[in-house]
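Hey, quick one: can you model this chain's 3D structure?
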Amino acid sequence: MMLKLDSRDYALALPLLSQVKINTLFAEAVLKGQTTGTVYVDNVQNPRTFYVAHDYGMSLAYGDSGNEAFNRSLYDYITNKTGDRQSPEWLQGDPAGGWSPLIESMITEHNALLNAVEPGPETADTRRMYTHTRVNFTFDPEVYHSAKEQWFRQDAVIVQMTAGLFDGQSGAVIPRYFWRDAEHFLSTGIGYTLLWEGEKASSAFSAYRTADQLEIGIESAAGHRGKHFAFSVCSALIDYCLEQGLEPVWGCRRENEGSYRLAQKLGFKPSLYIPYYRLAE
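Sure thing. Here's the predicted structure for all 281 residues.
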């Protein structure tokens, strides 16, 4: 069965996480208490199978994928059998751990049952599960510095994020979804906001931060897109990373064309494509 792990025991989930060779910073942030989430295991004393769910709506399965009792509960969870999940959740499985065929078989079974009950293309879309693609990147500083000379907006005002800017952010990717509160963010994280004609045009911030890596979160106001503002504010954060000896990290859905193109413009090169599962509501 999937058993909730007490937050005081989250360290039990860290050794195996370190062996997962994809970007797992969001899961690490949950396990180390940067942000909130839920951790499920097969055994609370000696866990072998792990499911880390970030409250923002991202999750990771890793460890032993052949645990039949856990997997039966996992099927109920990802198909939202109880109806507790009210919004989509995006799941990754450790590519080296045999999770992809397991999850894909669950998706196929769930969607087939859904079609049998409610056939036709109009079947409730929110109850259907889909496979997308998640992209991991590697950073090339030479490409970045060359691009910065061409695209950085010298006429824009970029300021470091304050408590007021932290609390005042709106949109889908904003700091308060990734940090406990403004005080925690300001003591451990970092962010910048680009101001244009008195408005918050674009912000880049540390979604997750470790001793040697910083994952970038970016949000631009609808009326200020297409003006290189996102590139410029991300540049401020990348420069901070380079000054502090941190590796800047970027990840996104391949279907998010804007983020995918911006990443490459900033010097991030696609390095890994993995299945990314949109779980049913």
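One thing worth noting: Residues 99-117 form the longest helix (19 residues).
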